[in-house]
Amino acid sequence: MSFKQGPLIHLSKYYPPEWGGIERVVYEMVVGASKDPHFTSHSQIVLAFTEKKEFKIEELENQVTVIRCPVLKMLASQPVSPSYLKNLKKLIKEHPNAILLFHLPNPLATAALFFLTRKFQGRVIVVYHADISKQKRLGAFYRPLLKRFLSRASEIWVSSPILSEKSLVLEPFLKKVKLLPFGIHSEFNEKTLLPGGSLKLLFVGRLVSYKGVPVLLRALKEVHPTITLTVAGEGPEEEALRTLTKELDLESRVEWKGRVSEEEKKQLLMESHLACLPSLTEAEAYGMIQIEAFQASRPVLSSHLKTGVSWINQDKKTGRLFEVGNHLELAALINELNENRALLLQYSNAAYVRGQELSSEKMTETMADYLGL
């Protein structure tokens, strides 16, 4: 296995087709850089975990290599893989002039601290997606290691000003922090019209507790009876959510789509008036679906979290923010936009503009600028 000198090496968790929030960002960065002329002299390598049992190296187009390392076990919801550590050490040794992009949180990747000897002359950049918010025991062990790792990094890229302002972990390193808004390649080259007829709401995401879908269902119960909801996604909470839908007598107004393809998601956005993101915790660090909705000219109703979610969605401009968990406030906002279609159109126009600002192309341009390419 041989690679060119000085590649961009992404230390990710997983990589598509194993999707998640971090994985979507890494994918957009890799694909964006592979098409940007500033990066033509740099090959790219992605080191990732995989849920499959076999170690695999994939050579993709445009000088992209993906190394997939099987997970031995999960520890406090974090993947553990001896193969990942072995290949991390090997990549650092083989590419002493590489640009290392560490996508954190990823506790295992921070073990690279022990491999970064004086022989390594490349750059260490942290792409800081979020604080660890749930696993207290892991956090107690991980934070001291993380702080040492952040001291070693030359730069720390964050997706929103809110993250750098509120993170106690980042506070000692603010001089290293640079803003890199995450973006998505837009499938829409122009603003799209809102559909006619009764208001249609859309939720896209994993059906897990922190996503707050019960808040959305309870809000639906309080709004005009012609308003409907489509839920696209799957997860461990699906059965409980279907039961709640039945208890609320909403079965005729909620459509369950399961996991959808990118093309199906695009179509669902076109058929909807509003996207909803009723998340309950700061595990929702950014909310990429908001950008996808904006690019489709669809406003968003999202929880007022102290994360990038509330920075992406500009209240009273690209949609509305509501108090976390407050289904009555959410219902009032839905009813308002159902009755005031002129206001909905105003939000739609602003949403499209915001979506163009948060494109993968702009993200890649900013990366090239920070890297001096």
Structure report:
The protein is of the alpha/beta class. The protein folds into two domains: 188 residues, Rossmann fold (3-Layer(aba) Sandwich), CATH 3.40.50; 158 residues, Glycogen Phosphorylase B (Rossmann fold), CATH 3.40.50. It is 36% helix and 20% strand. It has twelve helices and 16 strands. The chain has an eight-stranded mixed β-sheet, with helices on both faces. Helix 1 packs across helix 12, helix 5 crosses helix 10 and helix 8 crosses helix 11. The longest helix is centred in the middle third of the chain and has 17 residues. The protein is globular. The mean pLDDT is 92.
CATH architecture annotation name of the largest domain: 3-Layer(aba) Sandwich
Tally of separate domains: 2
The shape is: globular
Low-confidence stretches: none
Assembly state (oligomeric): single chain
| CATH C-level category of the largest domain | Alpha Beta
- Would you give the CATH topology of the largest domain? Rossmann fold
- CATH superfamily membership of the largest domain: Glycogen Phosphorylase B
What does the average pLDDT come to? 92
Give the helix proportion (percent range): 25-40%
Structural class: alpha/beta
